[in-house]
Design a protein that fits this description.
By secondary structure, this protein is of the alpha/beta class. The radius of gyration is 21 Å and the shape is globular. It has a three-stranded parallel beta sheet with strand order 1-5-4, covered by helices on one side. Strands 2-3 form a two-stranded antiparallel sheet. It has helices at 24-27, 52-67, 96-106, 108-118, 124-147, and strands at 10-15, 18-19, 22-23, 44-48, 73-78. It has two domains: 1-102, no CATH class; 107-147.
């Protein structure tokens, strides 16, 4: 319907290379997920999801596409999942070396930090201060959440649907 009615929808696929514990190479004959909308007349773009600047650029293109009345578009963000699928997933289906290699070569946070320092937007000291402030804010939020009273069961269905 999104294609038929030319709805301004951006479908984002986070392709972290694994579905639960199975590599996409073992689970899909077609690894290019950005092409999955083509049979519905929905174009797709693939982007390196580990590169925030590339993601921004492709998202801007997608927004322009849908705002111009062209209908929906699919974005495949190719990224990597450093940890298991859930707390119960020990991620033994890949080696520590594989995970470390990706972290060393394509860590988006480290890459952006380096870019900010290289372009003299922030100094290393300022980046460390920002990191410390973020960690502090997370700790405060976690403490507040853990200390908060659990909501009652009567709140379970609050704000789930629009009244009217």
């Amino acid at each position: 319907m999104a294609s038929l009615w030319k709805l301004p929808v951006i479908f984002c696929i986070e392709n972290n290379q694994y579905g639960m514990g199975t590599s996409i190479k073992k689970a899909s004959a077609g690894e290019n997920l950005s092409k999955h909308g083509e049979s519905f007349g929905i174009p797709g773009l693939e982007v390196d999801g580990m590169n925030p600047l590339s993601v921004y650029e492709v998202c801007c293109q997608a927004v322009e596409w849908v705002r111009s009345g062209n209908g929906p578009i699919v974005l495949e963000m190719k990224t990597y999942r450093y940890r298991g699928h859930s707390m119960s997933d020990p991620a033994k289906y890949r080696s520590r070396e594989e995970v470390q290699k990706i972290k060393d070569e394509k860590d988006p946070i480290d890459d952006i930090k380096s870019l900010l320092i290289e372009n003299k937007i922030y100094s290393e000291k300022e980046i460390k201060n920002i990191d410390n402030n973020i960690r502090n804010n997370i700790s405060i939020a976690a403490e507040k959440a853990l200390a908060a009273e659990l909501p009652s069961l009567s709140n379970l269905y609050e704000d789930v649907m629009v009244k009217g």
